[in-house]
Design brief:
With 369 residues, the protein is an all-alpha fold. It is built from 13 helices and 2 strands. The radius of gyration is 21 Å and the shape is globular. The protein starts with 9 loop residues before the first helix and ends with a helix.
């Protein structure tokens, strides 16, 4: 998600820019479609089914972002000090800035109305001294995400800690060990979760971090080293369609049967979503390779500009969604088939415009890109 390479041969990474941009749009689509999708009992079955379709399309979003980060970060060679200095500048400062804003919003320091923002709507930590207010905000950020989408950042920080170790294997001669790690991840992560779901109890095997999002991170690097052939792309297309239909069908069946959303089949670390995301990554790489087989400077420039703004768009878009909700621009109060894509595009472009403006302001640029 974060632009990891600033001085690079543009043509070589155009596909990554394109996939990251699509991933950001899918993130917003997932959060917009999740508004009716998570309210099974509050919306009509038709609107819920429509939101379910959009939500399945969006499920690959975060895995795509992890895979792109792995594809760009793992093969780079730099000192530990350079690596963490760049991460601090590009990721940690924006994370802290936006986390504080989201916590202040949670405490009622500002709200969204028909105008863009209104300050001081509630007490806003009024019962706290300044020191205690700082402690309360810090405790929130250290114990839980400031807003639901910020969980991604905590996972990314964990991957940053292990990246220097993974780089030791990224010399072109140790790929088999990385594939071994992917196999361990898939067996004791997605496949074990499937067995536990079917048996209705948890198995004792727990490899912790190795069964989390590190699998996507490593796969992004490994798959970026493979030339995508037409047969491979065809198989990926078939897998994507089968997994999408599977996820859609069983989410509907279990949710209708229990009268509430059963989101197991939409879990980002379930086996079906893993196959869905990896197959889409392969398809998008093949598509990007096809598009950029001839120079397309305008498209390349657009993708690069989107990449530069993508981190900021990710951080701010939940604020924009809530503002849209205050204006009743929401699929919850309108037909989902139309308003999910309309709201998604509106949130995306408004977020991009705000971030583009902030990026032009010297001191604020550091907290959005």
């Amino acid at each position: 998600m974060v632009s990891e390479i600033s001085s690079r041969p543009t043509a070589h990474y155009e596909w990554a820019d394109l996939i990251r941009g699509i991933g950001i749009v899918l993130v917003i689509l997932g959060h917009v479609s999740g508004i009716p999708n998570q309210r099974f009992a509050e919306v009509s079955l038709l609107n819920w089914d429509v939101s379910n379709i959009y939500n399945i399309i969006a499920r690959s979003c975060v895995p795509l972002l992890f895979m792109i980060s792995g594809a760009l970060l793992i093969p780079r060679q730099e000192s530990l000090s350079d690596f963490y200095r760049k991460r601090f500048q590009r990721v940690l400062l924006p994370f802290l800035f936006w986390s504080v804003l989201y916590v202040l919003w949670k405490y009622g320091c500002f709200t969204f109305t028909d105008s863009l923002m209104a300050w001081g709507g509630k007490a806003c930590l009024g019962d706290y001294t300044f020191i205690n207010a700082v402690k309360a905000v810090a405790k929130w950020i250290l114990t839980r995400p400031a807003e639901y989408h910020m969980w991604f950042m905590y996972e990314l920080f964990a991957l940053y800690l292990i990246t220097p170790v993974l780089r030791l294997l990224a010399d072109g001669t140790h790929d088999r060990y990385l594939w071994y790690m992917v196999a361990i991840w898939f067996i004791f992560g997605p496949l074990q979760r499937l067995v536990e779901f079917q048996l209705h109890y948890d198995l004792i095997f727990d490899l912790g971090f190795l069964t989390s999002y590190i699998g996507y991170f490593i796969l992004g690097y490994l798959l970026a080293r493979i030339r995508i052939t037409k047969p491979m792309a065809a198989v990926a297309a078939l897998v994507y369609i089968v997994m999408a239909v599977y996820t859609l069908h069983f989410t509907h069946v279990f949710s209708v049967g229990q009268g509430k959303l059963v989101d197991y089949f939409q879990y980002l670390l379930s086996w079906n979503i893993a196959l869905l995301a990896v197959s889409l990554y392969i398809l998008l790489r093949a598509w990007a390779d096809h598009i950029f087989r001839v120079p397309r400077p305008r498209l390349a420039k657009f993708a690069a500009q989107l990449t530069a703004a993508s981190f900021g768009i990710y951080l701010i878009h939940v604020f924009v969604i809530n503002w849209m909700n205050s204006l009743h621009i929401s699929p919850l109060t309108n037909p989902a088939a139309l308003w999910i894509p309309v709201t998604t595009l509106a949130v995306f472009f408004v977020s991009w415009i705000i971030i583009a403006i902030l990026m032009k302001i010297p001191y604020l640029r550091a907290v959005v890109a």
